[in-house]
Design goal:
single chain; 442 residues; Helix Hairpins; SH3 type barrels; 4 domains; five-stranded antiparallel sheet; three-stranded antiparallel sheet; 12 strands; elongated
């Protein structure tokens, strides 16, 4: 760990030099001037924010520019402090030697780096990546300003170990991690942009759009990783052991994951289901919301979201209510008494179904006499709807209520079970009366 020892020695030397520097009267003077600049900058920023409203002026700006400008407003006190420090340094350089304003220059540089890094990091929406990028950039800027960046880089490059013929240093690990983070973020951002562009092409079906989006994302991520590994000098042959271990893991413990991935690609390619389809798989009924690499999200009518593995769509029977078209037929079975006119029953049922808004006029509703039951004439009312994703139970309920109202209006009765009792022996019936009157027997 020779490199780390050199870094520690350099830092120790810088720390030991701090007490000696305070023997000069100009160090306290510079610290006081820095504190005064910070106080004045904070006061001016508070005054500006209290009396000037910027929100109405940036409403129509692009989103990235609005976000960067808001960060600048939040750090307005630091920006004003930097301006004051620069003016102080110019004045001190004109009045005395430059080394007597060195501390002011360092404070101004650190504050400037803080603002610039904050504005640049605000463009990254991911909170974790934003924090990591800010810490790395701020560390590099601080080391560069105080003059320790070269020593730290040299020390990190000397501290390393050899793995399989590849010398891995701390600098190499940090550089690889930073490049991977940046390249993967860029690849994901570019894939999201291309995915949004693909959705604008109406000639492509939703399943093809999802498939192309997944393939583009996988290709960009793989390309980014290969570029980073090649740029840092890592030999791909050194990854042979790792790839062999991954292959063994796939063979023994990752069969389901690989099966779901392959099933997802098959589903997107053969277009058996696509986002927006109304399906029934197993005991789950709903419409397809999103199709991922491992699972498909199916949203039920009650708001529950089922994450069904893609393999289930290949191995189980799936009912796709909107596979070839979005029309769905509903059947309602009912019975009326034998005293009813079947022709009037058919006409009333058809008119009731046709009066519901969601029921299609083409094909029009139909009603058929299906059976002569024990105590009723049995009918089947059939109608079609085009929006099954809005629910089938609601339209069935609306049609049944309309049929009930129509039958009540036309005097058509629904039958109820009737039973005839045959008594083979006389039965004694006792009728009880109120009060003290004894019961009478008949």
């Amino acid at each position: 760990m020779e490199g780390f020892d050199e870094i520690l020695e350099t830092l120790q030397g810088q720390i030991n030099a701090i007490p000696a520097s305070f023997t000069s009267v100009w160090i306290p003077i510079q610290l006081a001037m820095i504190a005064l600049a910070a106080l004045v900058g904070w006061a001016l920023a508070a005054y500006v924010r209290r009396h000037i409203s910027i929100q109405p002026h940036i409403t129509h700006w692009p989103a990235l520019l609005r976000r960067a400008f808001r960060v600048g407003v939040v750090n307005l006190g630091i920006i004003l402090c930097v301006v004051i420090l620069v003016l102080m340094r110019i004045g001190m350089q004109a009045a005395t030697t430059p080394n007597r304003s060195y501390l002011i220059a360092v404070a101004a540089s650190l504050a400037t780096a803080w603002v610039v890094i904050g504005i640049a990091a605000s463009l990254i929406r991911n909170a974790f990546i934003n924090r990591v990028v800010s810490i790395i950039a701020w560390s590099i800027a601080a080391l560069s300003i105080v003059g320790l960046l070269d020593e730290v880089i040299t020390g990190l490059d000397r501290a390393g170990i050899v793995i399989g013929g590849l010398r891995v240093t701390a600098l190499l690990a940090l550089k690889t991690a930073a490049l991977l983070l940046l390249s993967l973020w860029s690849a994901v951002a570019l894939s999201n942009f291309l995915d949004q562009r693909l959705k604008t092409y109406q000639d492509l079906t939703p399943s093809i759009q999802v498939l192309l989006g997944k393939l583009v994302r996988a290709a960009l991520v793989t390309f980014a990783v290969l570029i980073v590994l090649g740029s840092v000098g890592i030999d791909f042959s050194a990854l042979a052991i790792f790839s062999g271990a991954v292959g063994v893991g796939v063979g023994f413990g990752l069969q389901k994951i690989v099966s779901n991935l392959v099933s997802g690609i098959i589903l997107l390619a053969d277009k058996s289901i696509k986002p927006g389809d109304v399906i029934t798989v197993g005991d789950h009924f709903g419409w397809v919301d999103t199709m991922g690499a491992r699972y498909t999200s199916v949203v039920a009518r009650d708001g529950r979201e089922f994450l069904i593995p893609n393999e289930d769509f290949i191995t189980q029977r799936v009912v796709n209510w909107t596979f070839s078209n979005d029309r769905v037929r509903n059947d309602i079975k009912f019975g009326v008494s034998y005293a009813s006119d079947p022709h009037r029953v058919r006409a009333a049922a058809i008119a009731a179904a046709a009066g519901i808004t969601r029921v299609l006029k083409d094909p029009e509703p139909t009603c058929h006499l299906s059976n002569f039951g024990d105590s009723s004439l049995d009918f089947t009312l059939r109608f079609w709807v085009r929006d099954p994703n809005d629910g089938l139970g609601t339209v069935r309920s609306a049609v049944m209520l309309a049929v009930w109202d129509a039958f009540k209006r036309d005097g058509i009765e629904f039958p109820f079970p009737q039973r005839d009792m045959n008594l083979r022996e006389p039965v004694r019936v006792v009728i009880e009366r109120g009060g003290d009157t004894p019961p009478a027997a008949t």
